[in-house]
Amino acid sequence: MDIINKNSMRLSLKFKELINDTKKFSILFVEDHDELRENTREILNKFFENAHSARNGEEALKQYRDFYAQESKYYDIVLSDIQMPKLGGVELVEQIYTLNPNQTIIMLSAHDDAKYLIPLINLKIEQFIKKPIDYQDLLSALQKTTKKLLFNGDAQNQLTPSSLVKLHKTCTFDKETHILEIDNTIVPLTKYEILFLQILTNNVGKIYSNKEIKAFYVASHEKLDMLNIRKLVSKLRKKLSNNCIESVYGIGYRVIPFSKN
Question: How far apart are CA 104 and CA 160, in angstroms?
Answer without folding.
Answer: 15
